[in-house]
Amino acid sequence: MTLPLYPLQYDALIRAALAEDLGLAGDLTTDACVPADATAKARFNARGEGVCAGLDAALHTFSLLDPGLVITRHVRDGDRVAGGTALATVEGAARPILTGERTALNLLGRLCGIASETRRLVDRIEGTGAQIVCTRKTTPGLRALEKYAVRVGGGGNHRFALDDAVLIKDNHLVAAGGLRAAVERARARAGHMVKIEVEVDNLDQLAELIDLKVDAVLLDNMDPPTLRRAVAMVDGRMVTEASGGVTPDTIRAIAETGVTLISLGWLTHSVRNFDIGLDFVVG
């Protein structure tokens, strides 16, 4: 079951996006060309195959501009859609539909793109037992929405923010004076509900970490044979996470090593936008 997305998580974001687009003078083109009493019916259409995500958030754009617009949803988040599928219809005053078009499409295209790519990767590793998760490499301001899109696509979420858990990475180890010192300090500071994960670059570091009994290990930039050895060394004593160098072509081999998680930063920072159009219905 996908964790829900609440309106409070995107209301301020969409208000800010609209304010950015409207600037100081408003929608000059629409207000000049379109009569105030003009009405329209517009439909969001998918232009390729993918997974719908963020529909309610995108449609909230129109509710903010004109609460009187009639909005009809034809699909739900998580639905797989084919090219030509109608996702939603917006009817009413033409001006707010035109003004909100780009903000809504920008958001919906990005979130559907993330959900669609996540779903493709999840399908590639089906049956291995591994789970795909995203990272904190998100677009500033869009983290809650982008992580939601990953969940809609069948993936999971790594940390939402710095205060979710302790994740000791290579630079922390240098600054702290070593692996043991970093872990001991983290354990002394963190509460009993806070999990500790440590990034390691090689099997020697992993051997040292196993004795420190942390909750999870991030196996950074290891090839599948090394990952398989690492999983055997851990032997179920902590969660194993593979990260770095993961592509659609390598992800199946990585999953088959037995790792618990596969984390991908590019899933939220470099994924391709999903092509969606807002088409006015004539007649």
In short:
With 283 residues, the protein is of the alpha/beta class.
> What is the quaternary state of this protein?
single chain
Spell out the helices and strands N to C: HHEEHEEEHEHEEHHEHEHEHEHE
Contiguous low-pLDDT stretches (5 residues minimum) are: none
What radius of gyration results from the CA coordinates? 23 Å
CATH architecture of the largest domain: Alpha-Beta Barrel
DSSP E strands, number: 13
- Beta-strand percent range: 15-25%
Spatial strand order of the main sheet: 7-6-12-11-10-9-8
Question: Helix count, per DSSP?
Answer: 11
> What top-tier CATH class of the largest domain fits best?
Alpha Beta
Task: Describe this protein with a few key phrases.
single chain, 283 residues, alpha/beta, Aldehyde Oxidoreductase, domain 3, TIM Barrel, four-stranded antiparallel sheet, 11 helices, elongated
